[in-house]
Amino acid sequence: MSDAPGRPMKFPYTFSAKIAQFPLKFYVQNQWIWRYWMFGLAISVPVFYKIHKLANSPGNVSKWAEIRRKEAAEHH
After folding, report:
1. CA 68 to the chain's CA centroid
2. At residue 3, does pLDDT exceed 60?
3. What are the Cα distances from residue 20, in Å, to 1, 12, 33, 65?
4. What is the pTM of this model?
5. Which residue ranges run through the membrane (predicted)?
6. What is the rounded end-to-end Cα distance, in angstroms, of the chain?
């Protein structure tokens, strides 16, 4: 059998070869931005989800619909 599938290309010219040879583990371990991005994402997603749920609650939606209706009535 040939060992060609396990051997990396000298220059990865296809997109899939570039992804396969990208040293992601090295960057995650040696650059601070990756770790802070992951921590920031983990912290901010629940906060933004809570804001989204509050902003789109039925009571808030009906309140803003009433405000928009009043504004539209003033302009006519």
Report:
1. 32
2. no
3. 22, 9, 22, 51
4. 0.54
5. 32-49
6. 81
Q: Domain range for residue 54? A: 4-75
Q: Which two tokens stand for residue 24?
A: 């992601």
φ/ψ of residue 13, rounded to 5:
-95, -15
User: 18-68 pLDDT, tens per residue?
Assistant: 888 888 899 989 999 988 998 999 999 999 999 999 999 999 999 999 999
**Letter for the amino acid at 13?**
Y
Block residue for tokens 């989800």:
49
Number of domains in the chain: 1
One-letter identity of residue 3: D
List the structure tokens of 9.
């290309």
